[in-house]
Design goal:
The chain has helices at about 1-40, 40-50, 50-60, 65-70, 150-155; strands spanning about 75-85, 95-105, 115-130, 130-145. By secondary structure, it is an alpha+beta fold. Strands 1-2-3-4 form a 4-stranded antiparallel β-sheet. A hairpin with a 2-residue loop joins strand 3 (about 115-130) and strand 4.
């Protein structure tokens, strides 16, 4: 009886591990595509998405056509926050993710971290194909842009990040 129990535990853990790894790969395809979009690298985006998604992202929803993208001079990195994840009836993974792009505007050079940020909401659909997970739908929406506050400015604000005096 103990042997059957442990075999069942191992099988269940194996299935959960496989599902977690599969979802991680789906998210990885999205993140690679979104990072290529933020860097305006169409060739890299083609490694993670199908042609329709690349055309949509780079011709119809180009980063430089947004208020945040127009102010970018030097790219300094991206941050991601998954808002929701769901499976469609077809087996696709639907993601809603908030992407924050850190950048320097013209005339400001910070070196690390960027002087400003731009936030976008992405609705993406990722599909498992013979070539692995691929982005088949990508809709970025501009949310906001602002200045990043440096640590010494925060300490002068009663040590409360984001609260101005």
């Amino acid at each position: 009886m103990k042997k059957v129990f442990w075999i069942a535990v191992v099988v269940i853990l194996g299935l959960l591990g496989y599902r977690w790894l599969d979802q991680r790969r789906a998210y990885g395809a999205y993140e690679g595509f979104a990072d290529a979009w933020a860097r305006e690298n169409r060739t890299a985006a083609a490694d993670y998405g199908d042609e329709d998604a690349v055309v949509q992202a780079f011709e119809k929803e180009a980063l430089r056509r947004t208020p945040g993208g127009a102010a970018m001079e030097a790219f300094r990195g991206t941050l991601y926050s998954v808002q929701s994840r769901s499976k469609s009836f077809e087996g696709d993974t639907d993601l809603v993710v908030r992407q924050t792009i850190l950048f320097d505007p013209p005339g400001a050079t910070t070196g690390i971290g960027g002087a400003m940020f731009a936030r976008f909401r992405h609705v993406a659909r990722v599909r498992k194909t013979g070539d692995g997970w691929r982005v088949v739908g990508f809709e970025p929406t501009y949310l906001e842009m602002g200045e990043l506050r440096r640590r010494n400015e925060i300490s002068r604000s009663r040590n409360l990040p984001g609260v101005e005096t």
